From TrEMBL:
Species of the source: Bariatricus massiliensis
Keyword Hydrolase attached: yes
Membrane-spanning residues: none
Pfam families membership: Isochorismatase
Family to which this protein belongs: Belongs to the isochorismatase family.
Biological classification of the source: Bacteria, Bacillati, Bacillota, Clostridia, Lachnospirales
Protein name per the record: Cysteine hydrolase
Length: 174
C-alpha cells in the first residue's frame, strides 16, 4: 500500500510570524516526529507552502484576511527551521490559495492508498486540502492527526475536525 504524509504550511509566518500562535508552536515537535517516522518508514512526504506575492492585500483573500504573510522569497514564507532539511529533500508544492488542486491531482495520480495530513491551519488549509484530496482519491484512506494540527482558534480547529469527519476523513485523536 502506497502511503504519503502531507505537511501543510509549516511556515515561519504561521508558527512564529505574522499569523503565528502558541497552538501552532505546540504542534511543531509532533509534526517533526511524524516526518522523522515517515522518512524512517520510507513513506513519501510532501510539503505545501502557502505562497503569496507583494500584491496580497489587493487580492480577495487579502481583503478578507488583511495580514501580509507567506510572501514568496521572504523568511516568513520559508518552512520552519526544524522541518526545512526534510522539506528540502522532498516535493514542495507552492499553493496560492487555501486548497491546492495541484496537490490533489498529484496525490491522485500517484495512486496513494493512505494519505495523512498534518500542519496548519486545521480550519483553513488542512480542511481544504483534505476535502480536495478525498474528492480526487475516492477510495484512498485520508486521515488527519488532530494532535499535529492547529487552527486559528481551538473552537475552529474542532469545527474543522468535525467537518472532515462528516466527509469521511479519518481524524486521529490522542
Amino acid at each position: 500500500m502506497k502511503k504519503v504524509l502531507i505537511v501543510v504550511d509549516m511556515q515561519n509566518d504561521f508558527v512564529s510570524g505574522s499569523l503565528g500562535s502558541p497552538e501552532a508552536q505546540e504542534i511543531v515537535a509532533g509534526v517533526l516526529e511524524k516526518v522523522k517516522d515517515a522518512k524512517e518508514d520510507e513513506i513519501d512526504i510532501i510539503f505545501t507552502r502557502d505562497t503569496h506575492t507583494e500584491e496580497y492585500l489587493n487580492t480577495q483573500e487579502g481583503a478578507k484576511l488583511p495580514v501580509v504573510h507567506c510572501v514568496a522569497g521572504t523568511t516568513g514564507w520559508e518552512i520552519i527551521d526544524s522541518l526545512k532539511p526534510y522539506a528540502d529533500e522532498t516535493r514542495i508544492i507552492d499553493k496560492p490559495s487555501f486548497g491546492s488542486l495541484e496537490l490533489a491531482s498529484y496525490v491522485a495520480a500517484k495512486g496513494y492508498h493512505e494519505i495523512e495530513l498534518v500542519g496548519l491551519c486545521t480550519d483553513i488549509c488542512v480542511v481544504s486540502n483534505a476535502l480536495l484530496i478525498k474528492a480526487a482519491s475516492l477510495e484512498a484512506i485520508v486521515s488527519v492527526d488532530a494532535s499535529c494540527c492547529a487552527g486559528v482558534t481551538r473552537d475552529s480547529h474542532e469545527a474543522a475536525l468535525k467537518t472532515m469527519e462528516m466527509c469521511q476523513v479519518d481524524v486521529i485523536r490522542g
